[in-house]
Write a structure and sequence with these properties.
The chain has 704 residues and is α+β, with helices and mostly antiparallel strands. Among the domains are: 161 residues, Immunoglobulin-like (Sandwich); 94 residues, Immunoglobulin-like, CATH 2.60.40. It has an 8-stranded parallel barrel. A hairpin with a 4-residue loop joins strand 20 and strand 21. Helix 9 crosses helix 10 and helix 13 runs parallel beside helix 14. The longest helix is centred in the C-terminal third of the chain and has 23 residues. The radius of gyration is 27 Å and the shape is elongated. It starts with a strand and ends with a strand.
C-alpha cells in the first residue's frame, strides 16, 4: 500500500485551556516534575509530530500541545506551572504503513512507557484498534488483500489509562535495604492481591493491597514462617486481555505489562495515584525494617498490546518498528518468543534503555532488592538468527550497571521458542529458576525407580549445571511448585490438569506435571490416601528446605491450598486462588512444619557450609532397586558437622545402614513419616546400626 502520512490530528483540538510550552531537555525520559513545572520527553524515531495531551481528574482532555523539540530521536518540552498529579498521554503522528512496520495513528491516545503512576484501566473497545477490519476479510480476520489496511480514525482516549506526574519525595526514615547474602535467602513467591484478600485479620479496605503486605500481621507471619524475601508476581501496571473480560474473568497473575515504572493501581488501598506510589514505598520500608527483602517478577518479554491484531495502547503507536521485533519477511507481524503475540526488541538502544531505566528506578527510587525475569531467554536473543547469547547486549548491560550491583538477579531461563531452554546457561551473578530441580524432585517422590542420583544432584546444588562455569550453588533457585502449575496439595492429589474453569475446554496449561495422586484423582475421604498425601507434602517441603541453593516456597503451600487441579489459574481472581486464612488442623500443622524446617535449614546450612556441593557423598542402596539412598555431608579437618539424609521413594519398608564406626551416635532431626515431621524427643541411633525407613519418607540425621 502507499504509506499514509499526516501532519494534523484527525481528532479536534480542545478549544480552551491552551498552555505555553518551552523546549526543555531530551532527558530524563518520561514526565519529571522540577518544582517549577513538568519536563516531558518521549522517544520516537519515526514520528513526524507528537502531541502532549493533558486531562483533568474526570478524564476530560483539556489541552493538546505539540512537543516543540526533537533531539536524538527524543521529542521533548517543558510546561511551566504544571504540578504533580497531572494526568497526561500522547498522540503520535507519522507514517502509517503496517506492512513496513509503522503504525502511527494520532487518533489513538498512548500511555507513556515511563509513566511513574497510572490512573484508569484499559477498557476493551473497538476504538483501541488502529485499523478497521476490511469489509471483506479473510476467515482468519486479516485484511482481504495485502496492503488493504484501513486506518481507524476513532478517538481511543476514553478507553486508555492516563499517566500521572509524580512527586518522588518520600521519607525512608533511615531504613536501608537488608542486602541479605544469597545463601541465607528463603523466597516466598506471592500474589499481592491473593495473599491478603481473604484475611480477616486485615481491615477490609486494605485486603489485597500493598498496605496489607506491609501490615504488622503480615510481617509477623513472614517472620514466624522463616522467609527472608517476598517475590511478588508482577506489580508493574498491567492490563487484562479483552477475551478474558468478555468471559467475566481477569488477568489475575499480571503477566501482561504495559507500564514498566508504575505500580499496579488496583493493588493499592489508596485511590490517589501519587498516594499509590507512596503506599508501595511504605510497604517496602516496613518490610526492610523487618529484615525482609522485596523481589519483583518483571515481564519485559512481551507487552499487553498482543499480536498485530491487538489494541494500540502505547509502544505500537509510539514507534512500532523500534519497540518490537518484527518479522523480517512480513514486517506487519511480530517475532513471538513469549507465546503472547509480541516480543520487545531488547537489542534496540532505546528499548534496552527502557528496560534498564525501569530496573534502576525500582532499585533506587522504590528500593527493591531483586528481580525475577519472566521468560528471560527472550531478552538475550540476538543476531539474524535471534539465538540466545550468554553475552548479549541485555546481559552485558545489566552486568556493568553500578545501580544494579546490589540486587539479586533471577532468570526464568527459558522462553517459548526453539533454543530458549537455557537452564545453566546464564552468566555469573545470575540465579536461575531451576526447572531441572523441580522435575527431578517430582519424579523421585512420585516413585520412579533409578532417579536417586538425579535427585541427589539437584539436592546438592546442581553442580552438573553450574560448577563447570564457576558458578556456585546459589545459582540454583530451587522450587517444587510455583504460581505456574499445581499447588503442592494438588501435586499429590491430581495427575491430570483440570482447567475447565478457565474457559478453554481444558486445553491450556502444561500436560507434563510429573505428578502422582497417591491412588485417587482429586478429592477423597480415604484415610490411607489422605495420610500418604500429607506425607508426600512433608517430603517435598523437607527436600526443598534441605537443598543447597536458594529455596522458593509458593504462597499457600504452607497452608494446604488447593486450586482443585487447575494448573494454570492465571485468570481466576476468586477465593480458590487466594490464600485461605481459615484452614483446618492439617493447614496449621503444615504451617508449623514449614517454620520448623526453616529453623533446621539455618542450622544445617551453617553446620555444613565448609562442605562443598561436590563433596557430598552418595550412599546408594543396591538392594533397594533404585528406590532411594542416602547423602552424607562429612565434616573433618576442613570444618563442619556430619549430617546424613536418608530418602526412600518405594512402597515397602526399607532398611538403611548408618555409616560410622562403633560408638558413632546419630540423632534424627527430621522424620517425614511423623505427622508433625519431627519427633517430640529426637531419636538416637548407634553407628554400625540401621534405621528403618517407612514407604515414601525422609529422615535427616546429625552426627553427635
Amino acid at each position: 500500500m502507499t504509506p499514509i502520512q499526516t501532519q494534523n490530528s484527525p481528532t479536534p483540538l480542545p478549544t480552551s485551556g491552551r498552555r505555553d510550552i518551552e523546549a526543555g531537555q531530551p532527558y530524563p525520559l518520561g514526565a519529571t516534575w522540577t518544582g517549577k513545572g513538568v519536563q516531558f520527553a518521549l522517544f520516537s524515531a519515526h514520528a513526524r509530530r507528537v502531541d502532549l495531551c493533558l486531562f483533568d481528574a474526570a478524564g476530560n482532555e483539556t489541552d493538546r500541545i505539540p512537543l516543540p523539540a526533537f533531539t536524538h530521536r527524543v521529542w521533548h518540552g517543558f510546561v511551566p506551572g504544571l504540578e504533580p498529579g497531572q494526568r497526561y498521554g500522547y498522540r503520535v503522528d507519522g507514517v502509517y504503513d503496517p506492512e513496513g512496520g509503522h503504525r502511527s495513528n494520532p487518533a489513538k491516545l498512548l500511555l507513556d512507557p515511563y509513566a511513574k503512576a497510572v490512573t484508569g484501566l484499559v477498557v476493551p473497545n473497538e476504538a483501541l484498534n488502529d485499523f478497521r477490519p476490511n469489509p471483506e476479510p479473510k476467515a482468519s480476520g486479516e485484511p482481504a488483500a495485502a496492503g488493504e489496511w484501513v486506518r481507524d480514525e476513532r478517538d481511543s482516549a476514553p478507553f486508555i489509562p492516563k499517566g500521572v506526574v509524580v512527586d518522588d519525595a518520600f521519607d525512608w526514615e533511615g531504613v536501608v535495604p537488608p542486602v541479605r547474602p544469597a545463601g541465607e535467602t528463603v523466597i516466598y513467591e506471592m500474589n499481592v492481591r491473593g495473599f491478603s484478600k481473604g484475611w480477616t485479620a486485615i481491615p477490609e479496605a486494605d485486603r489485597g493491597t500493598y498496605r496489607a503486605v506491609g501490615s504488622d500481621a503480615a510481617l509477623a507471619y513472614f517472620r514466624q514462617l522463616g522467609v527472608t524475601a517476598v517475590e511478588f508476581l508482577p506489580v508493574h501496571f498491567f492490563a487484562s486481555e479483552g477475551y478474558l473480560i468478555d468471559r467475566g474473568l481477569t488477568n489475575y497473575w499480571g503477566y501482561n505489562s504495559l507500564g514498566f515504572l508504575a505500580p499496579h493501581p488496583a493493588y493499592a488501598a489508596a485511590s490517589d495515584p501519587q498516594e499509590q506510589v507512596r503506599e508501595f514505598k511504605e510497604m517496602v520500608k516496613r518490610l526492610h525494617r523487618a529484615g525482609i527483602e522485596v523481589i519483583l517478577d518483571v515481564v519485559y518479554n512481551h507487552t499487553a498490546e498482543g499480536n498485530h491484531f491487538g489494541p494500540t495502547l502505547s509502544f505500537r503507536g509510539i514507534d512500532n518498528a523500534s519497540y518490537y521485533r518484527l518479522d523480517r519477511e512480513k514486517r506487519s507481524r511480530y517475532r513471538d518468543f513469549s507465546g503472547c503475540g509480541n516480543t520487545p526488541d531488547s537489542t534496540h538502544p532505546y528499548v534496552l534503555r527502557l528496560i534498564l531505566d525501569s530496573l534502576r528506578y525500582w532499585t533506587s527510587e522504590m528500593q527493591v532488592d531483586g528481580f525475577r525475569f519472566d521468560l528471560a531467554s527472550a531478552l538475550a536473543r540476538e543476531g539474524d538468527d535471534h539465538a540466545f547469547r550468554g553475552r548479549s547486549a541485555f546481559l552485558n548491560a545489566v552486568a556493568q550497571d553500578p545501580v544494579l550491583a546490589r540486587v539479586k538477579l533471577i532468570a526464568e531461563p527459558w522462553d517459548c521458542a526453539d533454543g530458549g531452554y537455557q537452564v545453566g546457561g546464564f552468566p555469573e551473578r545470575w540465579s536461575e529458576w531451576n526447572g531441572k530441580y523441580r522435575d527431578g524432585v517430582r519424579r523421585f517422590w512420585r516413585g520412579e525407580a533409578w532417579t536417586f542420583e538425579e535427585f541427589a544432584r539437584r539436592l546438592t546444588g546442581s553442580p552438573d549445571l553450574y560448577a563447570a562455569a564457576g558458578r556456585t550453588e546459589e545459582a540454583s533457585v530451587n522450587f517444587v511448585t510455583s504460581h505456574d502449575g499445581f499447588t503442592l496439595r494438588d501435586l499429590v492429589s491430581y495427575e491430570e490438569k483440570h482447567n475447565e474453569e478457565n474457559g478453554n475446554q481444558n486445553t491450556d496449561g502444561d500436560n507434563s506435571n510429573h505428578a502422582w495422586n497417591c491412588g485417587v484423582e482429586g478429592e477423597t475421604t480415604k484415610k490411607a490416601i489422605l495420610a500418604l498425601r500429607r506425607r508426600q507434602q512433608r517430603n517435598f517441603l523437607a527436600t526443598l528446605f534441605l537443598s543447597r541453593g536458594i529455596p522458593m516456597l509458593a504462597s499457600g503451600d504452607e497452608r494446604n491450598r488447593t486450586q482443585r487441579g487447575n494448573n494454570n489459574a492465571y485468570c481466576l481472581d476468586n477465593p480458590g486462588a487466594w490464600l485461605d486464612w481459615g484452614g483446618d488442623e492439617v493447614a496449621r500443622r503444615l504451617e508449623r512444619y514449614v517454620a520448623r524446617l526453616a529453623e533446621v535449614r539455618r542450622t544445617w546450612i551453617a553446620a555444613t557450609a565448609a562442605i562443598g556441593s561436590t563433596e557430598a557423598r552418595l550412599l546408594p542402596v543396591p538392594e533397594a532397586e533404585g528406590l532411594g539412598g542416602a547423602i552424607l555431608w562429612e565434616g573433618g579437618e576442613g570444618g563442619g558437622e556430619t549430617w546424613l539424609l536418608c530418602v526412600h521413594n518405594g512402597k515397602e519398608l526399607r532398611r538403611q545402614v548408618l555409616p560410622g564406626p562403633a560408638g558413632t551416635v546419630w540423632e534424627e532431626v527430621v522424620d517425614t513419616s511423623e505427622e508433625e515431621g519431627f519427633h517430640a524427643a529426637p531419636r538416637r541411633f548407634d553407628g554400625e546400626g540401621v534405621i528403618d525407613l517407612d514407604p515414601f519418607s525422609l529422615s535427616l540425621l546429625r552426627k553427635v
